[in-house]
## 1
Amino acid sequence: MKKIVLIPFLLLAIMTIAQKKVVPVSQSVLTGIPLPAGTKQDKRFLSETSARMLLEMESKKTGMEIKDVEVIYLPPIVAGGYSDDSLIAALSAIGWNISPVGTDDKYVLLQKDGKNR
């Protein structure tokens, strides 16, 4: 009986510790763009690994290689007013060139100073 009671507490402790890696951010480390209030960066291993795997599958189509991955959760458009157009404008304002990857508009290639990101 005591073991059954300890398992939920152990799971709760693990979940609480894991959530500490989701932190508020105001600027993207990789791109340098300012981000709206309420934006969070997910630094959990599983989230970053999953993002890396997805991006690597997409990048193989164009022969690119993925180095760094940043997982960011933007607040809902209704709450923050920050949309995909806002993101494109912020990237363009600091010199990033945006090119679609193939025919899928969900993935873009960012280029700045001759470097791909």
## 2
Amino acid sequence: MKKGCHIRPLKRRLLSSIHHEHSDMIVEMEMSLSLKELRRQLKALSGFSAETETITACTWRIGAARLHITPLPPRRTGALTLPRLALRLDLSALAPEDRRDFLDRFRRLTFRGGG
């Protein structure tokens, strides 16, 4: 390697923003997934069902948790185009001790790599 040349590893955050409100009852995040990909991944969670779906937004239920999804404009970086979704998880119907377990399972199912 040439003297003075520095190579940095590429890091990509799939959950680019996570915001917690009301003692972890509401979790908001932005994800780099298409609606089709997210649906496929979440069907592995027990109790998954679609409540309402339109072109601009949808609400899904996963057991006692509700997931509100709004498609965002894709993120473009050069020739790369990534789909984006804004998610709002309402965990208020879950017992406090079940919220952390639910979020851990949700993140494991939707994590695609990156840093």
